[in-house]
Amino acid sequence: MQQASLATDLPEKDPRADADRGGRRAARPPLPFVVVAVAFVASQAVLMMPGMGLGWDETVYVSQVSPQAPAAFFSAPRARGISFLVAPVAAFTTSVDVLRCCLALLSGFALLLGLQVWRRLLPVAVLTLAGTLFATLWITLFYGPQVMPNLWVAFAALVATGCFLRAVRDPGDRAARIGLGCAVAVAALMRPTDACWLVAPLAVAALCVRSWRRPAVLAILVVGAAVGASAWVVEAYLSYGGLATRLRRAGEIQGGLGWHPAFGHQLRALEGRSLCRPCDMGWRDPATALWWFALPVLAAGGVWAAARTPLRATVLLPTVTGLVLAAPYLLTIDYAAARFLLPTYALLALPVAFCLWRLVTAVRPVLRPMAAAVIAVLLLAHVGSQYVTADRLVSRSRATREALARISTELHRQGVRPPCTVTGNESVRIAFQAGCSSRQLAGHDGSISRAGLLELAGRQPVGVLVAPGRPA
Questions:
Q1: pLDDT digit string (tens) for 116-133?
Q2: Is 472 within a domain?
């Protein structure tokens, strides 16, 4: 009876969708998908965008393609994918608000695309709930309009996993093969190492599941990753002394890769910290991590609920892929940022949503309204806590933007105008606002010696920024 009930809720065959084998247009996204995507964009516009300045990492990425100031130092771990994404907007305007508006719209479209890819694999109700769960996380909302690569890797992972399932099951699904290659390439362009962790479980699944063994799909995985990572690899030889040297330097900047369980760090980061490094402070607000403890339980429940249905592989693969993507950030680095796990959250939203959906549909019809109401109340409480955390983080970002703007204005008042150079505390963001280049004497962004800085000061204005309470 359970399987029969489930079958009635599966996506029905749509002649227009099946016709895309011949190159015709696929079915339009269902209205619930559109509503989720529009609500996601609207939430960003209301909660995230107004008055929020560029973060430190964002400034580095934007400066690579913006005429506002010379490019900031580009360290070994970084990839230029997100800079390429914002290049058309950054070249057209220096307005941060316009940039964020464009990214919010793009992220809404990416969410819609990710849900639509899975339309033939899971029921619309499950996908709508999964999209809502992911889109209402404070991490997703906060990074939706930001110039950061992690959310785009998350969307790419969602699309790639769905396209993979469609491609291995239907050799004639040309759109799925194209989508798989493009999604893997986007992930590699944004973060090459993340793309490796994305491709690995998909490739293993294609080799281990007999009915999925399709050489073309394996080739697409490899070629997509190679194409996306090619810019990063070429840059390694042109600017970092080779691929091995760049990888080694990237590991050093990340504190040295090794056995470093970071579960506690991630829990602290969920309080609303964009970066927890070092992450040795107290855990002040454990309530912000309640959903994190529920996540593995509900995901396991989704896998268990699907185990005796035709959807077992469809639910299991994103679960395994999401866990693999989380492994390097939970086990190998000694710090945390909530954004690192965005690809994992995007994929685990599927089994979690399936679990919640089955909790409602598996009970007797007379009890379903009550079950749905209980789950809805819990989800509303969860969403409320996410919005509170996001608002707290955005408020800090706005205050920081105002403080940095005052410093930039003061530098201009004292004669530090382009061409100029700024060094010291928070030099990257302040230099970008002032139209100056930023140079550091030490650290992983060290790019000039003390003698070189003194020589530079003889040719152009140089501003030295010192943190409060520290000697100049």
A1: 999 999 999 999 999 999
A2: no
